[in-house]
Design a protein that fits this description.
- The chain is of the alpha/beta class and 214 residues long.
- The protein has a single domain, classed as 3-Layer(aba) Sandwich (Rossmann fold), CATH 3.40.50.970.
- 34% of the residues lie in helices and 16% in strands.
- It is built from eight helices and eight strands.
- A hairpin with a 5-residue loop joins strand 5 and strand 6.
- Helix 1 packs across helix 2, helix 1 crosses helix 7 and helix 3 runs parallel beside helix 5.
- It binds thiamine diphosphate.
- Thiamine diphosphate binds next to helix 2, helix 4 and strand 5.
Amino acid sequence: MSLASPPPEGATRAGGRAHGAALHRRDVVAELLADRGDLLVVAGLGASAWDCAAAGDHPLTFSLWGGMGQATMMGLGLALARRDRRVLVLTGDGEMLMGLGALATVGVQGPQNLAVVVLDNERYGETGMQPTHTAHGVDLSAVARACGFRRTMVVTSGQEIPGLRTAVHTGDGPLLAVVKVLAESPPLVLPPRDGLLLKERFRRALAGEMPAPQ
Ligand SMILES: Cc1ncc(C[n+]2csc(CCOP(=O)(O)OP(=O)(O)O)c2C)c(N)n1
């Protein structure tokens, strides 16, 4: 199986319908982050971070600006350090594929308070919509299951989002959910770009040194 081969039927190189997906990523993220309470969020680079910003910039969202493959390990560190808080990693399939080893470490550590949601458009969106391995059948939920995640899901319809939301906010983790989303490029909504600001405001909000908006 070569990544240079054409994407499977139902997928288009220029964007559009990813295999089996009809969900808009912005709608999914808005629903997961509505009334987020004191949820800690790590946003994978690029589109996932824009989706989080579109849902409302928040001091307890840490957006990765270019650190591809790091999101799940960052979420794991937070979840282990703060077992009293729920942690959500929201990331793309390309980003998750680059940091695949993180799934094995999460499986071994088994943090109950960690959820990883992969917004799977089966594309490297930001660099030109090249098909990723998931366009060729690689199943990240199966990888996570094999690594020992307590719960895995593949979400393809809007009716499943409330259940995913419950699992993220209150379920027993670690959870990995693959959400099949359309390969589309909604308008850019950028979070703050200053890494020091992002780190400091997250740290201060987590330490209770500033009120975090609900
Ligand atoms: C180490 C590294 N390699 C490549 C890039 C370039 N890059 C930025 S975003 C991106 C694609 C991300 O794809 P995915 O995580 O699937 O996000 P989406 O398709 O939702 O935009 C790539 C390859 C990078 N930032 N870092």
